[in-house]
Amino acid sequence: MLSKKKLEIGAEVEALCNKCKGATIHVIVAIKSEEMVRVMCKACSSLHRFHPPDGKLMKKMVKLKKAKKAKLTPQARETRKWTKLLQQADPEKAVVYSMSKAYVENDLIQHDKFGLGIVVKILDQRKISVVFEEGLKNMVQNMN
């Protein structure tokens, strides 16, 4: 690609951006001895040395980008799940939790200690899994 175009300041080239961590379109800012020395990224406006869009540096940047992706803790996952389920439910229809009642999936319950929760799974005739804001709890049902 570079050999076909004449190198001149202001021309656009594809290069690796240190800040964006990927190949983006850059503008040539400085040329020395028929080689690009500095470029400016059009996406983030950072100035840096020219790095070709392929090669070892690209692989290193991809690894860095993947490594920085934050993983959710189990607690955060449960909170996210609770929030998503709660958006689909009507809090007005919540029933007060009682061990003697029977529940089905997606029932909305109000617990004295844990607050608003949604039944996500019937484990067996006497146990249910309920997701609350603070996490997943196994609860008793049908106790006579």
Helix amount: 10-25%
Low-confidence stretches: none
End-to-end distance, in Å?
Answer: 78 Å
Q: What's the shape?
A: rod-shaped
- The averaged pLDDT comes out at 83
Instruction: Tell me the series of helices and strands, N- to C-terminal.
Output: EEEEHHEEEEE
Number of helical stretches of at least 4 residues = 2
Biggest beta-sheet profile = 5 strands, mixed
Strand content: 35-45%
Total count of domains: 2
Sheet/helix structural class: alpha+beta
Tell me how many strands there are: 9
Q: How much is the radius of gyration in Å?
A: 28 Å
- Main sheet: which strands, in order across? 5-6-7-8-9
Outline the fold blueprint.
Layout: E1 12-17, E2 22-32, E3 35-41, E4 47-49, H1 56-67, H2 74-88, E5 95-96, E6 108-111, E7 115-124, E8 127-132, E9 135-140
Parallel strand pairs: 5-6
Antiparallel strand pairs: 1-2, 2-3, 3-4, 6-7, 7-8, 8-9
Task: Report on the architecture of this protein.
It is a single chain. This protein has 144 residues and is of the alpha+beta class. The chain has two helices and nine strands; from the N terminus they run ββββααβββββ. A hairpin with a 2-residue loop joins β2 and β3. The radius of gyration is 28 Å and the shape is rod-shaped.
What labels would you give this structure?
rod-shaped, 38% strand, 144 residues, 5-stranded mixed β-sheet, alpha+beta, 2 domains, 19% helix, 4-stranded antiparallel β-sheet, 2 helices
